[in-house]
Design brief:
Blueprint: H1 2-23, H2 26-57, E1 69-76, E2 82-88, E3 91-97, E4 102-107, H3 122-135
């Protein structure tokens, strides 16, 4: 079984290797192929890493608040749980948000003042994160 898999892999890669050998010498072919695959894997890991970091940081500049529903304040109380004050039209509501549902906790009689969230560029936040990690 392994012998067939090995020969199938060689047959699949044969056109690539013969083309590469005709263009460049055979000594550098293996190095070039490994460098190309390594570079591709590095870029993919970098893209997924930045996407994961952006999801965890919840950058306010990217997550715009346009429309009739605005998040005024939020406070995490667990890994996937938070308490939020949202504004719907002229009313402000306190809601509890978990991974599986959202519950209305109360209506605010006196609304909270909406604090302006300063939009900070990604470069500034990333540099703060990097200097924070360098100090550790």
């Amino acid at each position: 079984m392994k012998k067939h898999l090995y020969s199938w892999t060689l047959l699949t890669l044969l056109p690539v290797t013969t083309l590469a050998e005709s263009v460049v010498g055979s000594a550098t072919t293996n190095v070039d192929l490994a460098a190309t695959i390594g570079s591709l894997l590095f870029v993919l890991v970098l893209i997924f890493g930045i996407a994961w970091m952006m999801k965890k940081m919840r950058v306010p500049g990217i997550m715009g608040s346009s429309g009739p529903l605005k998040v005024i304040k939020q406070m995490p109380i667990g890994p996937k749980e938070r308490i939020m004050v949202i504004q719907v039209g002229e009313e402000q509501l306190v809601i509890g948000v978990t991974a599986s549902n959202i519950n209305l906790l109360s209506k605010l009689e006196t609304p909270l003042k909406e604090s302006k969230i300063e939009s900070v560029s990604f470069a500034n936040q990333f540099s703060k994160l990097m200097t924070k990690n360098e100090k550790k």
